[in-house]
Amino acid sequence: MLVLLRGRTVPVAVPALRLLSTQQTSSPFANLDIRPAKRPDTAAYFTRKPKFYDLLSAISNLSRQHPLPRYNEANYKRGKWIPRAELQTKLDIKISPREHELLIRRLGDVSNLRIADPAERETVTLYLNQFRRGYVHAETVTKDENGETKVVAPKVGKKKNNGRRGFLDHLGRWHAFGRRKEATAFAWVVPVEAPETDPEVAETEEVPRLSDDLELDPELPPPVEAVKIVDNVPAHAHFPLGDVIVNGKPLAEYFFHGTDRDSVLFPFQVANKVGQYNVFLRVSGGGRTGQAEACQLAVARALYMSDRKAHVPVREAGLLRTDGRAVERKKTGKPKARKSYTWVKR
User: Fold this and answer.
1) Whether pTM exceeds 0.90
2) Considering 55, 104, 191, 271, which has the largest number of Cβ atoms within 10 A of its Cβ?
């Protein structure tokens, strides 16, 4: 812009916006692409874990869509859901134990819903199956009687034998394993069969009447007589006690300390089943005390799985949990667990 100053023309700088406002009618930013970016795909876009919270929101919506009363949770057995490590791999995100527990609780709530519509119930079941343990996603397309194509829902994969919980092997033995410190034990538990009753021994005997051998006073009342006694027990009735074999040796030969032997047999004492099972143990590693406690855990797991309802005291006694302690704790007033300071007189 030129300005006349003292008879001379001098150029003067003027702000660009002022010139544009006087010379142009349109905004200088009209040609600039300053529109907002694309809207987020989900409402959880700005959270730390969008995939996890989208999944949690979808499961919660299922609960709100079906407000019918739920099953009685006291009589309903909850399903087994996908473990945390597998879920992290599936979603490709890191999930904390607390978040996994929250998700499992929501899945359990949805599985307890009573859905009236059969089609909707099947849809919800298919959705929940992908979060069940051992599920394999492989849909099968078949044709029904009318020649129409239909998709068959995949079944939940069969559980593998878990030695940590105990299982029944192909020979009819209850098998489980246990660990303690550096020791590992494998146990096979077999119920002792009661001896069969010999029909020739079990006979009905009649007790002779007292009035036949004795002369009774007619003034006294007649004696009370035993009519019959049925003896169904064999003459030499006995039930064999179960044997406990550890690494091919009897229990008393392998564990020479009484406390170790009591530790191995403690699950039978809790369940009140002492001598009613044959036990075969294979143990390795660690010391004798660690091996005895590893055998105790393996025996308790196998015994509990043989009859869960009858062996509830075994679970309540805490015999099914692994003791993770590896070293003895330090004692107050001592430098180590058992070491003591040297006594000095002065």
Assistant:
1) no
2) 271
